[in-house]
Amino acid sequence: MIPPTPQEAGAPFLQKDTWNNTVLREQIVRAYIPIATRYESDEVDLVVKIYHDKDASNSGEMTRTIDLASMGSLIELKGLIGNFEYKGQGNCNTTGRDCYTKRFIMISGGSGIPPMIQILRAIAADVSDLTECLLLSGNRCEDILCKIQLDTLAKENTPGFV
Fold first, then answer.
1. Using an 8 Å Cβ cutoff, are 9 and 42 in contact?
2. Last residue of a domain, which of 81, 101, 120?
3. Which residues lie across from 31 on neighbouring strands?
């Protein structure tokens, strides 16, 4: 899964990549938020939960298509959309306006977890960033996306992460 033209991998914080899937020769367009930022990686890392239980209707059309795609299939990346960027040290830009925060209170679950991971990873990577984070997740324990990664971030970065 690579973009058809060279461009910077990752994404500004909380900005979505729009994926155009042509695997089944039909156009399905969905927005996904990479968990890595453009500053972290030369790759685009996505979290896509695949349901392999008896009720396949739990999965969306793009998710099922990604699951069925063979290795080397092309999924086209189309630009970034979004209006929030975390610049570090509590500094943010939202809808073109700079602002500052001492703490993030994040309420999220399911597909809302990847954008929170993006911010948490950025704060954890900068030892001088003292921004506090409180993440409230409304999922059942067995259904939390990236639970191990979230637990590791919380354990390694206390007291700022709760």
1. yes
2. 81
3. 18
* 30 annotated ligand-binding residue: yes
Distances (CA, A) of 99 to 16, 66, 102, 138: 21, 38, 11, 28
How many domains does the chain fold into?
Answer: 2
Contact 156, 125 (CB under 8 A): no
In one letter, which amino acid is 27?
Q
49 in a known ligand binding site: yes
- Residues 32-90: tens digit of each pLDDT: 777 766 666 666 777 777 777 656 566 677 777 778 878 777 777 666 677 888 899 99
Cα-flanking dihedrals φ and ψ of residue 125, to 5°?
-75, -20
Q: Which two tokens stand for residue 137?
A: 């997740």
> Is residue 140 a known part of a binding site?
no
| 71 is an annotated ligand-binding site residue | no
Please name the residue that has the structure tokens 């993006």: 118
Q: Is pTM beyond 0.70 here? A: no
What is the Cα–Cα distance from 161 to 132, expressed in whole angstroms?
6
Query: Which tokens in the block code for residue 113?
Result: 């977890």
32 is in an annotated binding site: yes
Nearest Cα residue to 115 out of 21, 16, 25: 16
Q: Which of 81, 107, 125 is the last residue of a domain?
A: 81
